[in-house]
Amino acid sequence: MQAKIPATVVTGFLGAGKTTLIRHMLENAGGKRIALIINEFGDLGVDGDILKGCGIEACSEEDVMELSNGCICCTVAEDFIPTLQKLLDRERAPDHIVIETSGLALPQPLVRAFNWPEISTRVTVDGVVTVVDGKAVTEGRFAHDVAAVDAQRKLDENLDHETPLSELFEDQMACADMIVINKSDLLTEDERAALSARLRADSRNGVQVVTATMGALPIEVLLGQGIGAEADMEARHELHHHHHDHDDDDHHDDEDHDHHDDHDHDAFESFVVTRPEISDPASFARQVTEVIRAHDILRLKGFAAVTGKPMRLTIQAVGPRVDSYFDQPYGAGPRQTRLVVIGQAGLDRAAITTALSA
């Protein structure tokens, strides 16, 4: 059976940096063909124009599809599902689909829609990425321009205009598989650490919290989470229901403020650990999980040679979740275990290498 196409949902308030993050991802797609579904509000079409006009090879104009008939989570049947089907029915389907929700849309109804029979066997939610304005959240504002967000809500009479932004923010957090603290260059080191710790403590187990400037995240961190979020709705229920019919909203979240001039590409690092054969795959998987938890590793992937087994063991870990399977016979090269470790800058390479080699 053909593998399902992965889709990543990107959510967050107006001004958090969603479009900037997506543009950076497209500029660093590494040959991956990515299609975008953008939930514009009204006839603005700003995000779509920004991304269509970006001149990035990974993102042709036909790969950007806009939904501007209202909030995506309220127009699932008549708008979102048909759009997704058009993408899936193409002769050359995309490798990955990225959906940018409007700023006040709840991600939960959208994720739930991936269980609809029309698409459930063909596409899966790779993960939900919630982008937050680190400076605003640290100051208790949740958005850079609260007045602008409230003005958006007033434009749609179907919206609940009374719910505090803090509750909408909690719903976006509740659905996240990864939380991106954007604009982290505007925070001190202590503020970054405190906010990361707070958001991690308030989230489900396994939710990753990363910091970024100008949305600069490596594509191997952002995509390929393999969560299957639509099968895990119980854990990410809405804390509140904010719609009457719709959820609202907005959009031109292009937000690039002028004070960022460098993209902080050195915020992430990766390195390779090699070790001899392993004897017990289950025990090694537990060992990998412990090392990931102890050192806050984002991704770990590679191959292991198992004593007495002609096949190599593929290992892939996203946060503390480790998957492994035998994929193909070892070739003529040396039988060894080789793992790529990916995380935010400052990983203790020596300690991680020692722990994985034990």
UniProtKB/TrEMBL annotation:
Biased composition (Acidic residues): 247-256
Source taxon at top rank: Bacteria
GO terms, molecular function: hydrolase activity; nucleotide binding
Gene3D superfamilies named in the record: CobW-like, C-terminal domain (3.30.1220.10), P-loop containing nucleotide triphosphate hydrolases (3.40.50.300)
Residue segments, region Disordered: 238-264
Family assignment from sequence similarity: Belongs to the SIMIBI class G3E GTPase family. ZNG1 subfamily.
Protein function: Zinc chaperone that directly transfers zinc cofactor to target proteins, thereby activating them. Zinc is transferred from the CXCC motif in the GTPase domain to the zinc binding site in target proteins in a process requiring GTP hydrolysis.
Protein name: Cobalamin biosynthesis protein CobW
